[in-house]
Amino acid sequence: MPLLKNSNGEIISLFEKRTYSEIFFFPQFDNKGKFLTDFFTKIAPSIYPKLFPLSTSFAWKDNEEYRLPNHQNLLKKRKKIENEFQEALIDVNQEIDNNTRHFSFLHNILSETGDPLVNSLIKFLKWLGFDQIRKQDDEPKNSKILEEDIQIELENGLLIIECKGIGGTSTDSDCSQISKIKHRRCKDRNRFDVYALYIVNHQRYLPPLHRANPPFSDIQIQEAENDERGLLSTWQLFNLYHDIEAGILSKAEVRKMFLAYGLVTFRPLDLILVDEPKEFFKDGRVCIVTLSNIEIKLGDEVLIERDGQFERMMIEGIQLNDNPVTSVTNGEVGISLNNSIRKKSKIWLRSS
Fold first, then answer.
1. Do 200 and 172 touch, CB atoms closer than 8 A?
2. Residue 242 — φ and ψ, nearest 5°?
3. What residues does 162 pair with on adjacent strands?
4. In whole angstroms, what is the distance from residue 344 CA to residue 172 CA?
5. What is the pTM of this model?
6. CA-CA distance, 168 to 166, in Å (whole number)?
7. Which residue stretches of the chain have pLDDT < 70?
8. Are 280 and 287 in contact (CB under 8 A)?
9. Are strands 11-17 and 22-25 parallel, antiparallel or unpaired?
């Protein structure tokens, strides 16, 4: 489409429409800047409004002299909301910073080694309710003799803890060296009331869910049982914190579990296994379980365990042979829960 011709009738400006583009061809101008300014502010926006949503041709409308009724009041209202939002944002960011500092020990037990790991574990142990805790690095000692990292005086004896933060998994000697210290402490006390525990922050450069859990071999666990000492990972402690906060475990019962032999596990002692479902529907909110002399009732609270972590849920519906029932003891039944569960989850009931 011709746009301009010269005095000889020759086309000197044209518009060309292509499949995926549109092109304007202009002649040479003495003042290109003024021409382009006029074109992009006055002409092009009317042809391509979507390309020029912020065209300034009618920017005068925003001037105070030309504002519409109520516009000024609404601008003041918006400004007030913006100020309040900024103040609230500053406050919540401060809360986030404070919360991060307060609970940093939970991330530290999953990332640190050496003294920072020991200090963070001591903070965790104090939160758990152990009150007579002693960090052995703070005590005068013979540097040639291997010492435990933490001592905890108990009503029924002494708990000694060795901590390690490592890039891989523990060797047999890593797991067992606490035994030598245990024997020496028993001799020092002239009593066999010393409990030994090895805590490891393993594969600490990996996200915890990508680590080997548990990080101990069957042989290491069996030898720990034989030697009457415990094995524990910091990832277990991280999950334990949330289980206690959720009311699944109490601090008092957990403190007793710290004295177990072999792989220390944290789970309520009053659990009855319902089943490990294999079929799921409605995004995991409904599953099929097989019961064998285990009664479940509408409204029962159950614990869902997956990868050593627990979550409380409620039974909202039960169906037997496609009929709704309020309770059932045997057979293949469908249950609906108030939340979704995934494959490899176990369903537990608390014994009454």
1. no
2. -70, -35
3. 198
4. 30
5. 0.73
6. 6
7. 56-57, 138-144, 352
8. yes
9. antiparallel
